[in-house]
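This protein record is not my work; I was only asked to verify it. The record follows directly below this note.
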Amino acid sequence: MRIILLAAALAAAPALAQAPANPQIDYPGFQALTAAVAPQRAARLMPFDAFKAEAAEPGVLLLDARSKDAFARGHIAGAVNLPLTDFTAESLAAVIGADPDRPILIYCNNNFSNHRSPVPLKSAPLALNIQTFINLVGYGYANVYELADVVDFDDPKVEWVKG
């Protein structure tokens, strides 16, 4: 069945390519941004202990970009929620503040070994950290760091707040 759907999609591709481009969607720009961000992201992965220590520093924002519902069911203490689907220049500025160089720490479902609500495992290439990192840098926030480790939210060191 998948092969049939793939074949149908590929056959339709030439027709789709002739459709007028939406000026509000820039896939080549996204590809270029993703490629440009890759080395920065690789250098900004933080082990859990360093991540927690940095999160405790004044002025550092611990950002949870999961859905409001998932955040309400549980999150790391001190985290602020802004769902990725709600990212706009205005919403980010309202949460992050006026300083585009403010340190921002991010984590997602795939940083937890629990694999149950509110952090079910996502497909690795689609982990929320990836899109969140790319979007934050794309909106002009270059001081982004990402939790590198997989942790258990039941570990008291995580300081998980249950909803």
The mean pLDDT is 92.
